[in-house]
Amino acid sequence: MSVKSFKFVSPGVFINEIDNSFxxxxxxxxxxxxxxxxxxxxxxxxxxxQSYSEFVExxxxxxxxxxxxxxxxxxxxxxxxxxxxxxxxxxxANVAPLTYVRLLGQQDANPDSTVDAKAGWKTTNTITxxxxxxxxxxxxxxxxxxSTDSKRLDLGTGSLAAIFYVDDxxxxxxxxxxxxxCRGPNTSETSTQSATTGANNVMIGVDSDNLYTVVISGSSGxxxxxxxxxxxxxxxxxxxxxxxxxxxxxxxxxxxxTVLSAKSYWLGESYEQELRDRSFLSKSIGVMMSVSKGADTxxxxxKSQASKEAVAGWFIGQDLGLASNYTSFEQTKLFRxxxxxxxxxxxxxxxxxxxxxxxxTSTTTDYGTFSILIRSLHDTxxxxxxxxxxDNLNLDPTSxxxxxxxxxxxxxxxxxxxxxxxxxxEYNNNSxxxxxxxxxxxxxxxxxxxxxxxxxxxPPRFRAAYNLCGTxxxxxxxxxxxxxxxxxxxxxxxNFFVTGGAGIVAAGGVGTAGGEPPRxxxxxxxxxxxxxxxxxxNYDTGFCTGSLVFPAVRLRNSASDGGLxxxxxxxxxxxxxxxxxxxxxxxxxxxxxxxxxxxYNAGGGQNATNPHSVAGVEDYAYVFSLxxxxxxxxxxxxFFYQSGxxxxxxxxxxxxxxxxxxxxINSFTAPFFGGFDGFxxxxxxxxxxxGMGSTDAASYRYYxxxxxxxxxxxxxxxxxxxxxxxxxxxxxxxTHMVRVGEDRADALALIDLPSVYVPPHESYQTSxxxxxxxxxxxxxxxxxxxxxxxxxxxTFYPWVQTRDDSGAMLWVPPSVxxxxxxxxxxxxxxxxxxxxxFNRGGLSEGAxxxxxxxxxxxxxxxxxxxxxxxxxxxxxSFPSTGIVVFGQKTLQExxxxxxxxxxxxxxxxxxxxxxxxxTQILFEQNVQATWNRFTALVEPFLANVKVNYGIxxxxxxxxxxxxxxxxxxxxxxxxxxxxxxxxxxxxIAIDFVIMSTGAxxxx
Length: 1003
Description:
This protein is α+β, with helices and mostly antiparallel strands. It is 17% helix and 21% strand. It is built from 20 helices and 43 strands. It is globular.
């Protein structure tokens, strides 16, 4: 304190106390960033969690790999997700929060022509000829009955039962050719079809055991003949009999013996709920047809498709006009919900319910209220499982309960020019799963305030083909199932996704008993639909008719479905149970809402005429509204859904929508649909290192990793002191991590070296010893050649073995263990203590935060020396003391204090904390009093670090020698802080002097 601060009036001794020993309050604790895959969670954006329980809630638990099961339907868990183990290892010590960046597939704006350049996947061959001779996507369509007259076989309406993805080869049905009642070239001839082995251009019925038979033949000559049904309680259920792992087609790369293990196909979607509802599980007939719009457009080609967000279709208001003029698809759009970054996890695991819809009873506002529930996809209305809930919402933009304000409408988008995330929207997100997009008119307060969410637009669906007929003139009508839709007539094959066709062999044709019918024709007799076995000119007009409809999920019919005693407990709209009366969820529901085509743009905008931007895709499979609820018996309580009832003026809301709400029928459920992860599902680890390109344009994997790293490159966007991407060994990307740490000047990058250990998801090896493709000397030489020379990076050798909570053993890269070591070292001492040695680096003693039970290579003393000289920190295994981190060097080649991890972390800590303290005097007057304030802030902080052995001495200089007059004129305060870092003991030298008996120890 300056003497000028004392007030002298009369003589005396004046004493003031100055306390520079206090410890100032620190900023929020700063932790690491980990980049990797996880089972769920917001993707391609940093999300900070405070504990491992919070991490599991957001991103899921650790994934050790090799999960098996129905991979196409349930997700790919075939390779370890190392990032989840790193998060667990660090958060176990509870010293700091952790920020996780979940990966989903992205691609450069201008990808090149290499195979790996584009996100997504496709079958190796996508030529969808009839029959399937060279790959593609093929649908098995089922018909249950038919009727005939003298000239026509009416097949009725067929439904898509399953989609097969043929990577290479052909697929067809085999069995009894269906032809009863068919007419041949002359109308007087009758069909006398006999049992024969069919191909994919014929209709085949079930055999005597009520089973279908499919033959799949790869180009290698390997042929499979599989009998199956669609009963999921049967041992012959289709998903139990066919391969559902897309990675099996890459057997030579990942699973060894190509003859024994590789497949030429996999089973994709199957629609058991639809088949059950339409009684297709038995005594039906099938036909295999291509599901595509040509050689490269359809479910088999999802390339060029980066990750997409699942959406819930636009929620619409109640009809306020005359019931006799009602059109469901013209009702006012209010809002919709869009995933915040979960990809396809959202539509595979969640649904949304609108509940407690209430009209206003207030005299001060006409706006009513409602609730939004994010629910588990596989719960039931008898046992609702709420994952997130928002109550008392409204559509009043001026209200505190305005839906966008309560849930949030902000979303992020990657700026490819500036390489950073941009955030758009008005209100912060309070939902972990979705954000709200409002109709512009609602947001502007321009719609009728009495409007309430009363229904929704269903998901898009491939266009149905009705009344295909033998004249070659094909009639199409879009939409079906639960809602009206604008009707148009289409006359060209480009308007729907069924191409090629299936022939029916008739008497007098070229098919004969015991022989194989022809596979195609010179002209599709039913153009684009069911192709005849011979040319059109050989048959009478009107020979055959049929319709093809793509499946849509069931809508709840009755309020009492599932045995609900109280009709007000029923959620109308989408129903996810096995049958209408069941209380068990149907696993096939998620298949109805998968993304099956490229070009999807999350709805395309609220006023788009074709919101899904793909020809052959109708905008919505159905439109649901509570306006179509009917009361079965006057005075009763059995409400049920009947599409079109409002237009017929038989709906309960025909007089007024409030009548329905007063009866407590005010809840409904809608699906999420269209999410996509952007990954190549044919790879166990879609982000693996092998064969990865070295530029953004050459590899979607490279671009995805790099974009995730760039996301955290800005120190003003996110605080961090460590950066790890466990399992990433691409040298260009790991060097980029170190450069990001340098540019930020506040983060140490932990990188993994290539070829130290090659896990199974990288490539198949004939024996386990071949997974060790590097030696300490090779690793040292390779790292020296990279010339990284930076104190902002560190690396370790070799990989270590850990045990998952399930008991599964797996090898993990050393960066995983080091995340735990750095955390436990900080918990036991301070951030500036060396994270090595038996006290703080003993992996066998639990320093890693996860159990470490082995190393891929036991290092000799000479090998440890080789590694350490190359700035690679050894992880040693000793017979008596266990596994221990035996080094703490950074990647800096020049000798200085900063070539050690503990000093680099100390300096990062000091710089970050002092910069935060300095903000307290920013924009204050550049005078002595402010300098004193700065000194009072920083001195105690440095003294505390010294007391805790981070530095041995320091000096802070802030006076006229540093902040000179000319700097003051430039608005600059300039201080110097000099420190002497405390060094760790890495070498202990002891002389043992052997002396004679008569010698004195004092000499």
